[in-house]
Task: structure prediction
Amino acid sequence: MPECRYKAVIFDLDGVITDTAHYHYLAWKRLADSQGVPFDQQINEGLKGIDRMGSLELILAGAARSYSAAAKLALAEQKNLHYQQLIEDMTAADLLPGAVEALALVRAAGLKTGLASVSKNAFTVLDRLGIRASFDYVVDAAYIARGKPDPEIFLKAASELGVDPADCLGVEDAVAGVAAIKAAGMRALGVGDPAVLTQADAVIPGLDRFTLAAC
Ligand code: B16
Ligand code: MG
Result:
């Protein structure tokens, strides 16, 4: 194999490794409906990669009334309970096609693997999927001050892996996530639609098309 241009690959979780993006949508939809606030797949697209309170603020921007800080916290907690119910029964069958193979490919090439999810439920999801040990470092979102598109989470992953950001490939399904990778000074591989992920260096439809030559 020719020498790889990367030393580490840092993956997003929701929408890349597993389709929890859909569970987030269902949980937000239930909450938005309970408040009579408009919410659909298009609004949801803009929430991908945005942390819980940031997502709530974007949803409540469409509300007819205003909410106190305490009411917002209660709504965020409610959404999280809906979400936790939805992920309760996840298993390895919920891994997206190619996810396990992509992680194995990266390790077989001698590269490090990182996970950069702003989800505070990421460790639970990784355990349900049975892939926590496939990562050399998983960022704990509880210690991240700024969500995507801020580069903080990707820079934290690179630093803990002991790799220069310029030697990292970031893999993301969200516009905000791709922006975070680029702001961190990394190459960005988008997973999804090239018409949506316009800032990515390359885009593949799913990890089943992952190669280290992808961008
Ligand atoms: P939680 P990622 C993100 O995860 C999701 O894309 C986003 O929709 C969600 O609001 C966020 O995690 C926070 O999740 O409420 O579980 O803390 O894409 O960075 O893996
Ligand atoms: Mg994502």
Q: What stands out?
A: The pocket of magnesium ion (ligand 2) is lined by residues 12, 14-16, 21, 48-49, 173-174, 177 (CB under 6 Å). The chain has eight helices and six strands. The longest strand covers residues 168-172.
